[in-house]
């Protein structure tokens, strides 16, 4: 208890403090302050050099060993000077931490704005009496893919997506995929069972459920059965309107009905029977345009917050380096 813990495997140099007596594995080293050095001063020194540690292969974030840690050189001023440096860094870091927490609170607030906008736009009220309630299965033919055996996976060819790839696509719009099937296999699947087309929607169905991706005209891929469900559009509906519906509480609340707990598997039957309140196609498109604009504003604000937090953390590193380097000088 009270020892400094340092990761010695990727990522090398991550630090924490043991808050109780524990056993540690080979991925951690325990560092204990001697009587010659203030604990907090040692922690700050290790924090300052941790980002520069290099592993055995000469690359950052590989691994380091006990001998390398023991050979780390530490400037050791008198104890009173150590205490002065710690007090100064504590004060500076406290202010920065407060600012970082404020940015995180702002990020949560912005996320709530988007959630509120989704629910307001997609949940009908007394002003949306012209909306009709339809089953999702009335708008899409819902199914999955033809099973592709693991033996048929390749390291090049046509991209093959699982739930994790669809989740990445849902979040970023692109994915660095490492699974493929052969061109011949893809052609056979396309001819005999069909493939997703522009406007169709893929939905993750196992584990993290409800992440969606709208198929683009230029897309060319196949996907794993069961873990991803396929909504093939069969009616005049705006796919992006439905995509936003999946992201709203209007969708998630229906999953809880009946058992009081959120399901972790989404079945074809369940999707077919979900209710969706639907305005006219023109109004769907107006709502999509409004939500697109809000999403863009939220993304811009979030990016500014991320950059602000990164700047605060960089400021920490600068203050730390300046204070400890001035002592070395």
Describe it.
By secondary structure, the chain is of the alpha+beta class. Helix content is 46%, strand content 13%. The protein is built from nine helices and twelve strands. The strands form four sheets. It has a four-stranded antiparallel beta sheet with strand order 5-11-8-9. Strands 2-1-3 form a three-stranded antiparallel beta sheet, covered by helices on one side. A three-stranded mixed beta sheet has the order 7-6-10. A hairpin with a 7-residue loop joins strand 8 and strand 9. Helix 1 (39-50) packs across helix 9 (281-328) and helix 3 (79-122) runs antiparallel to helix 9 (281-328). It is elongated and about 80 Å long. The two termini are 34 Å apart. The model has no long low-confidence stretch (mean pLDDT 88).
Tell me about the largest β-sheet: 4 strands, antiparallel
Mean pLDDT: 88
Count of separate DSSP helical elements: 9
Q: SSE string, helix = H, strand = E? A: EEEHHHEEEHEHEEEEHHHEH
Q: Please identify the structural class as seen in this structure.
A: alpha+beta
Give the termini separation: 34 Å
The side-by-side strand order for the widest beta sheet comes to: 5-11-8-9
**Fraction of helical residues:** 40-55%
